[in-house]
Amino acid sequence: MVITTLPASWFRSKPLYALERQSIFLRAWHLLGPVIRFSVPEEKVFYELAQVRFYITNTAENGIKAYIADTSSPLRTYLTASGLLFATLSDEAPEFKDFFPNLEPLVDRVDFTRLRYRRSISYEGHFNWKTMIDGYQECLHCVYTHPTFSALYPPTFYSVEPYTNFCRHIADPSKPDDGLFLYFFPVCTLNVYGGGMSSFRTCPTEEPGVSRMEFDYYHEGTDEEFEKYFSFVRQVALEDFELCEGAQRNLEAGVYSQGVLNPEKERGVAYYQGRVKELVMEAFQREKEKRLKEQEAMEKDKGPNDGLTMKTRAIEM
Asked: Where is the Aromatic-ring-hydroxylating dioxygenase alpha subunit C-terminal domain (predicted)?
């Protein structure tokens, strides 16, 4: 069976992103990071995903809670036993265990609170959110684009295991606690490698060709050791950034239309793109049926003589 990529038009269409926002982002659980990120009492840590601005706060009275920034309306959160905090953006999202039915047995063996929160950075990139996730979900490009990374984690071992709404990346089976990469559909990741831990979110903007990258970094060593780790992982991130901006330019210019995916080497891409297509097409069908019902209701309200009256007026004119 041939597995094709999403069409290039899906990476540059505003109406398509409107469907993605409703069918994917507002119905997902998004990783915000290890709970240690929110250890400062009363501090408000702000986020913005799919044009929903919200914040996390940790109070002695209520514990960790999430609120929409403009209205202070509460959002649902979920904290795993291993210390990972997730949040929804709307009431349309299912229960956490329905969205991630097999996540906790995998992650609960790891203590994600053992490393200290060190730094966050954010900046915009000229690429669609899916362009970045395409690159994250495969490592065929690693040997050419990430020479320092590939020296530590040879692509010959690299594999991606899709689950329900998340994927586990394994860089080296002999090092289960190093080279662990987790992708959470649609735009969140958690990466344990190089002696530290990081998470990033590829946040879509209203412009389909622009995304905002948000990174959080965790490390237990000295300041000098952290800066060495930070320099290494930032080099990898910047290599991906340049690759994505180049790929998006090709998508915008029409150089690329649609391709074929390797079912083994690109199974991570095939999985997440399949979810995108499935959810967007379901939303499109719902919208189509809704408009059809509205049209039928309007026709019914007009009455049997309205159509004849309109024709008569047209003749008179």
From this structure: 112-159, 180-280
Q: Is residue 314 part of a domain?
A: no
Look at residue 237 and tell me if it is in a domain: yes
| Residue 268 within any structural domain of the chain | yes
Query: Which tens digits make up the pLDDT trace of 118-166?
Result: 999 999 999 999 999 999 998 766 666 766 776 666 666 778 999 999 9
DSSP 20-41: HHHHTGGGSEEEEEEGGGG-ST
Report the amino acid identity of residue 102: N
Tell me the CA distances in angstroms from 106 to 81, 177, 246, one per residue in order. Answer: 11, 12, 35
At position 222, the amino acid (one-letter code) is T
pLDDT tens sequence across 20-65? 999 999 999 999 999 999 999 999 999 999 999 999 999 888 899 9
What pLDDT is attached to residue 39? Answer: 93
Cβ proximity of 67 and 73 under 8 Å: yes
CATH number of the domain enclosing 123 = 3.90.380
pLDDT tens for each residue of 227-282: 999 999 999 999 999 999 999 999 999 887 888 888 888 999 999 999 999 999 99
How many domains is the chain partitioned into structurally? 1
273 lies in some domain: yes
Q: Can you read off the two tokens belonging to residue 68?
A: 């929409």
Domain encompassing residue 281 = 3-289
Strands (E), 130-210: 159-162, 166-170, 180-184, 188-193, 196-204
